[in-house]
Amino acid sequence: MATEGLENEVVQILKLIDDNKNFLLSGGAGSGKTYSLVSVINEIYHRNPVAKIACITYTNAAVHEIENRVLNNKTRISTIHDFLWNNISSFQNELKTTFVESINSPEVKYNNIIVDIPYNNEFKDGIRYMDFLRLADGYISHDEIIILANQMFKKYTKLCDILNSRYDYIFVDEYQDTFLEVIEILLEFLAKSKKRSIIGFFGDSMQSIYDNRVGDLNNYIKSGVVIEVQKKQNRRNPQSVMKLSNQLRIDKLEQVPSEDENAPNMKQGEVKQGTINFIYSNSLSIESIKEKKYFDKWDFSNPMETKELRLTHNLIASNAGFSGLMEIYDKDPIMKFKKEFVKYIKEKQIDIDETKTFGEIVNSVDWRFSNRVKDANNRGRKHIEVFLEDSVNAKCYGLVKDKSFSVVKRIYFDKDNLISDKKEIDEERSSQSKRDKLIRHLFKIQAIVELYQIKDYNEFIRKTSFRIRRLADKKVIKKKIDTVLKMKESTIAEVISYAHESGLCLRDDNIDNFIKENEYLYARVAGIKYEEFINLFTYLEGYSPFSTQHKIKGEEFKNVLVILDNGKWNDYNFEYLFNPLHPKCNQSVLMRTQKLFYVCCTRAMENLVVYCKEPTKPMIETAKKWFGKENCHEF
Length: 635
Fold this sequence. Notes:
This protein is of the alpha/beta class. About 45% of the residues lie in helices and about 15% in strands. The longest helix has 17 residues, at about 435-455.
């Protein structure tokens, strides 16, 4: 077979394909795994134009990237969720049966939600994949797709036969982010079928930073079910960052500089050295630290060049200027109170009339703090009395106390409805977007304003509801845009109203129905200053220097500042990372933190600074070992 011009790793993979072997391409950060994936697909089509290939990946953004690089448009490229749903959705009878069986099985958990669904439930709309969850009606969301698909393929061998007949090859991009249940389908259930597809994986176990994912395929490699091919080159990182990242890896893959003279980390045939620094202080703020000489040539106003990485959105919200919105979506007091109240009445088996108001029900139940509660002032007091002593709580309670208990009970939202970790492709039309319709409508308004500002008039005209029919309309539209630009201090409700009345962005059925069905949430968001949403928009669109450490996986920047702060997140601990001998060190937390830190450091194309406030002596000693004594600085 002709292999001229192909990477050595691609040649190895093609040989495994010829031998009908499942394979894994393991490659560290900046190794060009997606390039290899696309090369394999293109070469298969070159050899066999009628080949049937499916490629599944984790995000819509990754789908879009692969679609733009694969030469043959016959490839089925989709997210994991869409791929699974596409292959099971037409079998409604089997879906209904499996869904009810799994709901009633103690071994299968749907988000730990307990719901009583009788075996004779007809599900008048069938089982449907929605962007919200209502198990009793057969409406399932992203997480449930994975579980239900696993149960379907496990139960119905015929379904495995159909999938194997549909595709000759199934390739999984960023395999480490794939759910365990999906790997089980691909490598265990499909293998029992009479027909067979070749399964190929592409990714890096060190970049597995999401919970409940496969992480690695070591057991399948040991058993010979999957053959590993390693891609050791690094095209992104300078020598200093590469040396650091190799110390962080916990597998046997050690990266080496790319042999490609045109690689980003090469300069005149030599690998760039770059800079790495570990900075720590017991007193200085991060803003003071950023004034030090190590940041002299950094431009924090250029988000395409420089990024400041923190662990959570909550740690960023205040600095980025959208803390009010985050407070609502992530720490709403009514959400917390009613959840605990509902739990209490279930445990005590208290019968209530859900048609009565929330206030009536809450006041009729004698729910009190126990005598063992830490705060002695609250012992024996009713929860609702203590709750209402806080002014914010009281204001929120006033919005729901006169609504029926059944309505308040169904109120649900969280920060995922405000923020997506990955920027969606065409967010406003994506049915799988986690952002709620209110936030999407605000995104539409701000996108219209931005399109006008950057003079993309064709796209502006396509998105706006205002019709430009004559020259005078151009002056009118400019005035309307200028008005919105001056409304930073106005409330979100005022901007939505003006955008509608001015014809810039009409309130459609989506937003009107959302407001009607989510009166409480809208009442809380409506009074927030519009400037907060502008700041959120700027942050989520990548126009600010801030980012979470999860969000930047797959991206690269000239300068990267990593801030070591756990916040209140117990899933990660940077002290354990730099001091694994800590007496309280949890191994799963340590590994999770090590992988996240690896991802953060390997984003840097030239300069990396890691900042730690108040590190312990063991942490400093490890930093000197990893970064070099000369690169560790105290202020």
